[in-house]
């Protein structure tokens, strides 16, 4: 998401990579909010001499202290001195007493400057709820200590690390899924109950605390040849990467966050999540995708076989009328086969119809005009069309182009043009306009004769495409057929 407007960006003292670093922080600060059981707010100075809230995150491990969204608003007067002090001192500043939020929550607030290369870039305010009176558990104390470590790293520009993966977070482990803290030697200092359960499902028999996570994890890997090369570096806490480990039919997603200070790495956090069911479903989808592709491929092969049989039968026909009928059937089957060939190459809901029809348009004209010199022109673009429209629209264009060559040009040389335009109609609906025109003899007197081809066209346009079709005289000479069909509802 965009955090900084052009106005704020122009007034910021940013060096190379500073804005990207803040965006990286906001993309990953849910981790700190969950560990601290606190709301985080990002503040940035504005020309009016105050601070503006640019982003806000709520914890998923506790309730929020802010039930209303105040992103874009100016800072409260009682909070401004704290944020200003953190900005100037470049160190964490804490409130002396519990402040009261607009929702009447008693809070302890920390102002954490985001410092990089000696420059303060922004300030995080961390809002801890003091309304609870119970003693915190060991898990909560460990979580909060780790949050403090990460916030301290933010004041030195050490976290987030640009080596942290920024791709898809699908299956990424979260704090509540499983949490492990390591010392500098990768020995487990604390493992949450969910982390222990995840490792036991993986095959670990003993408790995790007091043992090397690297050794315990690698001992569970049966086939080292299939192991991700990043695994040893992740489970030892040396690199801020993500990886997966699989054993006994269970797959764990692991993420490491090294803890560093001015002297170097002094520990690490490792998050783990059982993604076995997620990976199983992904494998099923991959298998289904491959099956669908294979089905389309086989349908295409079968249709091509039918077309070849029709061609053979056509050559044996003595009747010209029968041969012409078989040739037309062969052409229609080949058109459907071409659509299935396109569908077998992708599994999206939409089809690049221009790629499909460009090849088919030239082929139709060549087949329909063996003794003529017919040029083809295509203007406009169909764009991405729903897969269910591809076959009927291809057949309609096939019939109309063939009709333009055979009857419109009437065995003369000429040009057949295919036009496509996406637009909105009078009532604001997205429609596709398709026009096939020729520079031939023009429309006959009275309505066009309803042969089998035109009957197929009318049926497909009205029933399959939910559109309408009409014939008109082309400007100059010739005939123009226009089809209008809705496309918005099928995207």
Automatic annotation (TrEMBL):
One of its GO terms (biological process) is phosphorelay signal transduction system. Residues 294-489 form the Histidine kinase domain. Its EC number is 2.7.13.3. It is an enzyme of class 2 (transferase). Pfam families: GAF_PdtaS (PF12282), HATPase_c (PF02518), HisKA_2 (PF07568), PAS_4 (PF08448). InterPro entries: H_kinase_PdtaS_GAF_sf, HATPase_C_sf, HATPase_dom, His_kinase_dom, PAS-like_dom_sf, PAS_4, PdtaS_GAF, Sig_transdc_His_kin-like_C. The keyword Phosphoprotein applies. GO terms for molecular function: ATP binding; protein histidine kinase activity. Keywords: ATP-binding, Kinase, Nucleotide-binding, Phosphoprotein, Transferase, Two-component regulatory system. It catalyses: ATP + protein L-histidine = ADP + protein N-phospho-L-histidine. The keyword tRNA processing does not apply. It comes from the Bacteria. This is histidine kinase. It comes from Paeniglutamicibacter gangotriensis Lz1y.
